[in-house]
Design goal:
This protein has helices spanning 14-28, 55-58, 62-65, 67-70, 112-118, 128-136, 140-150; strands at residues 3-8, 35-41, 46-51, 74-80, 96-97, 101-109, 153-161, 168-170. The chain is of the alpha+beta class. The strands form 2 sheets. Strands 1-4-2-3 form a 4-stranded antiparallel β-sheet, covered by helices on one side. A 4-stranded antiparallel β-sheet has the order 5-6-7-8, covered by helices on one side. The relative contact order is 0.19.
Length: 171
């Protein structure tokens, strides 16, 4: 299973925030070393990055180190242990993105094969189907209800809404 983490904070104390998110990425890599990714927003811009490598390599990348300069107030991150989809193909790695959402998941979707026929998924990763169920609904609450109704398996999820959001949804 994967490791997920998140942080919602003020825009102050950038050094401390960077150190904390780096510590979280490294601490959760024991839950998955196949791929690492994160998404963040500073309230104006959003960014997301993902690579098929463990967190200890990922945190050395310029993209990760940019967290300190971009000064985000919301961050979600994922250390992947691959169960569906080859992590060398980056489309299978987290976070998954739609037009307005960034999404990460830990768990296994037991009815993935039947759901992927109904929802247009671009990856081979079972987690993506949750995002597709969410985005099909006209309201976020309805999307979450549909996930609980239609998606079977184990799950811990974090969802970051568009760049104007300062809210992190999780279950």
């Amino acid at each position: 299973m994967c490791g997920i983490y998140g942080l919602v904070t003020s825009k102050a104390d950038y050094e401390r925030k960077y150190r904390l998110i780096k510590e979280l990425a490294l601490a959760t890599q024991t839950r998955g070393r196949h791929a690492t990714g994160f998404a963040y927003s500073d309230g104006t811009h959003e960014r997301y990055y993902k690579y098929g490598e463990a967190a200890d390599l990922f945190v050395q990348r310029a993209e990760f180190q940019a967290i300190g300069q971009d000064r985000p107030n919301i961050i979600i991150g994922h250390d992947r242990y691959a169960t569906h989809g080859d992590p060398r193909d980056n489309i299978n790695n987290h976070p998954f993105k739609s037009r307005t959402l960034q999404f990460i998941h830990n768990g296994v979707i037991s009815n993935y094969d039947s759901l992927k026929a109904e929802y247009q998924c671009y990856s081979e990763c079972d987690s993506e189907v949750i995002l597709r169920v969410l985005e099909r609904a006209d309201r976020r609450v309805k999307g979450i209800q549909n996930v609980y109704k239609d998606v079977h398996g184990s799950m811990a999820c974090a969802l970051m809404e568009d760049r104007k959001s300062t809210r992190l949804n999780s279950s």
